[in-house]
Write a structure and sequence with these properties.
The chain has 291 residues and is mainly α. The protein has a single domain, classed as ABC transporter involved in vitamin B12 uptake, BtuC (Orthogonal Bundle). Helix content is 73%, strand content 5%. The chain is built from eleven helices and four strands; from the N terminus they run H-H-H-H-E-E-E-H-H-H-H-E-H-H-H. The chain is globular.
C-alpha cells in the first residue's frame, strides 16, 4: 500500500510537467489550428537562457523570471515571423514549418551552448518527504512543480473567463472571421495566444530540465505532453491538466511495477488507443470544431 501511494504521488508530480506542455499546445491549437511541434525546442532554448543568467548572477529566481519573459517574447516572435506567413495555407505547410523550427532551434542551441549535458539546478530540495516513517515518494521540488502548474492553469482560466482580452482570444479561437467583423484585432490575439503558450512552455522547461540540460532534452517530454493534450482533448485546457495527471500516474505505475523500459511503450499505447477510440479526447465535451 505504501509503495502504491509513492507511485501515485510521484506520478502526479510527473504529470504536472506533461500538463504544462499540453496546456501550451492547447492554447495554440484553439487559436490557430496549428500543432506546434517546436514547443519542446522553444522550452529548451529558454532553459539555456535561464541557465546562462543563473551562472552569471547566482540567482535561480532571476533565471526563472528571465526564462518566462524569454518564452513570452519567443512565442510572439515565432507567430509573427514563422507562422503568420503560412496562415490560411494548406495545414501541412504549418506542420512542416514547425518541424523545421524544431530542427533549427535544436541546431542553434548546439552551436551556441554545445551538445554535452550541462548541470541545471533544482528550485527546491529533492530529498524525499515523509510522514513519520512513511515515505511519500515526492520532494519539495515536486510540490513546487504542482503549485506552479496549477497556478498557471488557474490564472489562464481566470483570464479567459473574466478579462476582455480573454474574451477576444476566445472569440478569435471560435471563429476568427466573425471576431474580425466584430472589431477584434485577430492578428494581435493570435500573437498573444502564441506568446502565452511560449510562457507556459518556458515554465515547463524550467520544471522538467533539472538536473541535466542538452539540445535534445525536451524531445521525449514533448511527446508525452502531446499525448496528454490528446488524452484531455485539444480543445480543453482543463482536459490538458487532467490528461497530464492521468498519463503521469499510469506511466509511473508502469515504471514502478513493470520497469522503466516500459514507460515509452505505455505512453505510445495510450496515444494510439485514444486516437483510435476517442480522437476528440477523454475530457472533451463536444466534437472538435471544423474550420
Amino acid at each position: 500500500m505504501v509503495e502504491f501511494l509513492e507511485f501515485t504521488l510521484s506520478g502526479l508530480a510527473a504529470g504536472m510537467v506533461y500538463a504544462a506542455i499540453a496546456l501550451a499546445l492547447v492554447l495554440i491549437w484553439r487559436g490557430t489550428r496549428v500543432l506546434n511541434y517546436s514547443q519542446g525546442a522553444m522550452a529548451m532554448l529558454t532553459s539555456y537562457i535561464a541557465l546562462t543568467v543563473i551562472n552569471e548572477t547566482g540567482s535561480y529566481w532571476l533565471g526563472f523570471a528571465v526564462a518566462l519573459a524569454a518564452g513570452l517574447i519567443l512565442g510572439a516572435v515565432v507567430e509573427r515571423t514563422v507562422i503568420r506567413p503560412v496562415t490560411g495555407k494548406p495545414p501541412l505547410n504549418a506542420v512542416i514549418v514547425s518541424i523545421g523550427l524544431l530542427i533549427l532551434l535544436e541546431g542553434l542551441a548546439g552551436v551556441l551552448y554545445g551538445s554535452n549535458n550541462r548541470s541545471f539546478p533544482f528550485a527546491y530540495s529533492v530529498n524525499g518527504l515523509s510522514i513519520g516513517s512513511v515515505a511519500l515518494g515526492i520532494t519539495r521540488n515536486d510540490l513546487f512543480t504542482a503549485v506552479a502548474v496549477l497556478g498557471a492553469a488557474g490564472l489562464l482560466a481566470a483570464a479567459f473567463r473574466y478579462t476582455s482580452a480573454g474574451l477576444r482570444l476566445r472569440a478569435t479561437a471560435f471563429n476568427a472571421g466573425v471576431a474580425r467583423l466584430l472589431g477584434v484585432r485577430v492578428g494581435r490575439m493570435l500573437t498573444l495566444g502564441w506568446a502565452l503558450a511560449g510562457l507556459i512552455g518556458a515554465l515547463a522547461g524550467m520544471l522538467v530540465t533539472p538536473p541535466l540540460l542538452n539540445p535534445n532534452s525536451m524531445d521525449a517530454i514533448f511527446v508525452l505532453g502531446f499525448t496528454a493534450a490528446v488524452i484531455g482533448g485539444l480543445e480543453s485546457p482543463v482536459g490538458a491538466v487532467a490528461g497530464g495527471l492521468l498519463l503521469g500516474v499510469v506511466l509511473n505505475y508502469a515504471s514502478g511495477y513493470l520497469g522503466s523500459e516500459s514507460v515509452n511503450l505505455f505512453g505510445l499505447a495510450a496515444l494510439l488507443l485514444v486516437l483510435m477510440f476517442r480522437p476528440t479526447g477523454l475530457f472533451s465535451a463536444a466534437p472538435a470544431r471544423r474550420v
